[in-house]
Amino acid sequence: MAISCMMMMSQAASSTAAMAPRDGEGGGRRHHFVLVHGLCHGAWCWYRVATALRRAGHRVTALDMDAAGASPARVDEVRTFEDYSRPLLAALAALPPSGDGERVVLVGHSHGGFSVALAAERFPERLAAVVFLTASMPPVGRAMANTTDEYVSFVGADFFLDSRVLEQTNPDIPGNPEIFGPNFMAQKLYQLSPPEDLTLALSLIRPANRFTGDALMRDAGLLTKERYGSTRRVFVVVEDDHAIPVEFQRRMVAENPGVEVVDIAGADHMAMISKPAKLADLLVILAWYQEPGTNAPSLVVQPSTSHSSSPVAASSIVHDTSQLVANGRVLRHPRPTLELVADGHILHRPCHVGARRRWTRPPSSTPHARAHPPMSTGGGAMELGGGGHESVERRRRHQHHFVLVHGLCHGAWCWYKAAAALRRAGHRATALDMAASGAHPARVDEVRTFEDYSRPLLDALAALPPAGGDGDDEERVVLVGHSQGGFSVALAAERFPERVAAVVFLTAAMPPVGRPMSATTVEHVNYVGVEFFLDSMELEQQNADIPGNPVIFGPNFMAQILYHLSPQEDLTLGLSLIRPTNKFTGDALMRDPGLLTKERYGSTRRVFVVVEDDRGIPVEFQRRMIAENPGVEVVDFAGADHMAMISSPAKLAELLVRIADKAHEP
C-alpha cells in the first residue's frame, strides 16, 4: 500500500525525535555526518549545524580540505584536486569496513560537491547517502570540470563582482587561485545570514583553486554508474540562493536521473549559517529515511519542468512538483502548513532552511597580488544595548577606530561578534591575525620571534596616518588585547604611543614597566599550576631556532576553562579553528627588562577590564597584574567567561565605546 510523502516524512520526524537523545544524552540510532565546505571556506562554516547535530546525539566530522580553514597547507602547495580532497578521502578510508555498520551521510556544500562526488566514486560502500547542498553535482560519464564551465557560462563573468584572481606562484598548478570579494559575499553568499557571520567569514576565507584544468577534473570516465551512480544521492535545492541560481540547481538535478530532491526556502547560499537548526533537522530526517528496518518505501524523485517558488516550502519535504514514485505508484503532495510534532516537541515548522553556493570566476583576467582581503566589513545600522546600558549609537561622540588582538591559539575570527557590533554602530574595527594564527598563511615553525609573531599589529600601526594637528583624535586608535594578546598590544604601545588613544587589556597579560614580559607568563603558570591546563598539549618544536615548544589548547580545557559561559556553537567554532602557538617565553625580546619604558608604554592610557567570571585568568591574578601597574584604570565586567567577546559581545562593545569616548574627551 502506498504511503503519502507527507506521512512518510512525518513518521521519519517522529521517530527521529524519539530516538534522538535529549541534550545529547541517551541512546537511539546515531548517525555519522561528514560535512564538506565550499570554495574559500573551511570546516568552520558548519559550526552551527555541527553543534545542533551533536546536541541531538549524532556524530559529526567537519573537515578542512587541504589549504582551507585551519589546514596548515598553503594554496600553492596543493597541486591537484585529489590532493585538495585528500582529508576527505583519508577520513573515509579510515572508517571501519562497511560490514561493521559504519556508513556515513556525506554532505557537500557548493564547490564541495566535487569532493563528495569523488569520495562517492572511491568509497560507495561506506556511504549511506550523499547530500548535495546547493552544490556542484556532476553527472555520471562527464568531466566534473564541465559543471564549473557550464555554471560560469550561465551566470556570466560580471556576476562575481569584486572577487579576485590571484597570481599563481606554482607553475605546476594549472589556473590561478581565487578569493571572494566582500561585496560578492555580502550580496550573493550571505545576504540572509546574520551580519556577524559575514564578519566571521571575511576574517577566515582563504584563496582556493578550482582545479578546472586538473587531469582528474577533466576525466570524463572518472564518475561511473556502478559506483558514484549507485549511491543514494539527494540534492537540496535552496530557492533563495543568489550564488547558484535555482534554475542552475535544477539543471544539475535534471542531468542526474534518480536523484532525490528536497526544497528549502528562506535561506541564502550559506544555508548552514542562515538556517542551521532547520538544516540539521532535515539532515537527520534524510539520514533516517530508508534505513534498514524502517519499512519506508523506496523513494525516487523525477524532476519536473514546473516549479512553484512559494515561500511556504517546508525544509523537510521533498519537492512538491516532482513526481514521487513509491511502490510503483506516482504520488503528489501539497506543500504542508502543519507543524510536525513528536512527544510534545515541535520538530519542524513550515519555516525554511536555505543554503547558498558560490563559485568564483573573477570579473576580469587582471591578476591581483594580495592573497587576503580586509579582515571584515561593516554591517547595517543596528542599535546595541541591553541590561540597562544606553545604546552605542546614542552614546557615540566620535567614530572610533578599534584594533582588536586575539589571544593564544586563536585568531581575528574570535572578535566576529564584537567587531560586527562596533561596525553596526558606525565605528571602524580592525581585527588582526597575528602570524601563524587564524587565517594567516604562516606556519608556527616559521615564526621565529615574538616580534615576528606581532608583526601584523606593528605593521598596521606603522601604516596609520601620522597623528597630529586637527585630525589628532581621528588618527589615534583604541588598541584592545585579549589574554596573551596583551603582550602584543604592550609592545605596540611601546613602539607607537603617539598613535594609541588607549590600550585596553581585556582579561589580558599586562606586563609592568621595567620587567621582562615573560615574567608575567611564568607567574601565571606558577599561580594556576601545571594541572590547570587539563588536556592542552605541548607539541614538538620543529624549528631549533625557536626556544620552547608550541602549545595547543585541549577540548576539555576550552570547554571548562575558556568557553564555559559561551554558546555551545562558539565552542564548536573555536575547536575547528585553534592553531598551535608559541608562548615565546625564551625569546630575547620577551626577556628584556628594559623593553617597556615609562616614557612610552607607561605614558599611554591603559585600561584593564576585569572579567569576574573568567576561569582562564582567575580574577585574583588579574588584580595582581593591576597592582603591579600603578595608574591603570580598572573596569569590572560580570557575566562573561574568558572569551568575553563571544559570551557577552554587545555588552563588551558598549564598554569599549565608553572607554573610547573618554579617551577622546578634551
TrEMBL record:
Domain of life: Eukaryota
Recorded GO MF terms: methyl indole-3-acetate esterase activity; methyl jasmonate esterase activity; methyl salicylate esterase activity
Gene3D superfamilies the record matches: alpha/beta hydrolase (3.40.50.1820)
Ranges for region Disordered: 357-380
Domain named AB hydrolase-1: residues: 33-281, 402-654
Biological processes annotated in GO: jasmonic acid metabolic process; salicylic acid metabolic process
A Pfam short name: Abhydrolase_6
Protein name in the entry: AB hydrolase-1 domain-containing protein
Organism: Oryza rufipogon
